[in-house]
């Protein structure tokens, strides 16, 4: 497991920031690697399938080796793992009242 960044939900995109659109979950995200303190600003579309807690609460993003195995250790799954693209699966869960985004990154298939 590795701590990646802190996600900060916003109601609107922040002017001057560059966003990438994550179509699968209808979410606009900034690149945390471009922020000195590893902050990622996220702005959900109104019809995003993400639960309200993910759209409104700050959460820690962690990289895990096996998302299914790791998420089972959490107190509550708030959004089960989904495949975002060929190499990324994410899910959201609560542990001791803290919201986490779990990210599993795999090697692309040839």
Describe the structure.
The longest helix is centred in the middle third of the chain and has 5 residues, at 52-56. This protein has 110 residues and is mostly beta strands. A hairpin with a 2-residue loop joins strand 7 (88-95) and strand 8. It has an eight-stranded mixed beta sheet. It contains two helices and eight strands; from the N terminus they run E-E-E-E-H-E-H-E-E-E. 9% of the residues lie in helices and 46% in strands. The protein has helices spanning 52-56, 67-71; strands at residues 2-9, 20-22, 27-29, 39-44, 59-63, 76-85, 88-95, 98-105. The two termini are 26 Å apart.
Task: Please sum up the structure shown.
With 110 residues, this protein is mostly beta strands. The protein has helices spanning 52-56, 67-71, and strands at residues 2-9, 20-22, 27-29, 39-44, 59-63, 76-85, 88-95, 98-105. Strands 2-3-4-1-5-8-7-6 form an eight-stranded mixed β-sheet.
Secondary-structure map:
Blueprint: E1 2-9, E2 20-22, E3 27-29, E4 39-44, H1 52-56, E5 59-63, H2 67-71, E6 76-85, E7 88-95, E8 98-105
Parallel strand pairs: 1-4, 5-8
Antiparallel strand pairs: 1-5, 2-3, 3-4, 6-7, 7-8
CA-atom Rg in angstroms: 13 Å
The 3D shape can be described as globular
Spatially, the strands of the biggest sheet line up as 2-3-4-1-5-8-7-6
Low-confidence stretches: none
Helix content: under 10%
User: Mean of residue pLDDT?
Assistant: 96
Strand content: over 45%
Structural class per helix/strand content?
mainly beta
Largest sheet: 8 strands, mixed
Order of helix and strand elements from N to C terminus: EEEEHEHEEE
Please report the total strand number as a whole number: 8
Determine the N-to-C terminus distance. 26 Å
Counting DSSP H or I runs of 4 or more residues, the number of helices is: 2
């Amino acid at each position: 497991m590795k701590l990646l960044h802190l996600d900060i939900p916003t109601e609107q995109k922040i002017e001057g920031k560059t966003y990438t659109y994550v179509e699968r979950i209808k979410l606009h995200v900034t690149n945390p690697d471009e922020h000195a303190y590893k902050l990622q600003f996220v702005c959900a579309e109104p019809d995003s399938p993400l639960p309200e807690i993910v759209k409104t609460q700050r959460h820690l993003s962690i990289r895990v080796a096996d998302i299914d195995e790791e998420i089972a250790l959490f107190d509550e799954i708030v959004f089960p793992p989904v495949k975002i693209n060929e190499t990324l699966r994410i899910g959201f869960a609560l542990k001791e009242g803290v919201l986490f985004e779990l990210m599993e990154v795999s090697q692309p298939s040839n």
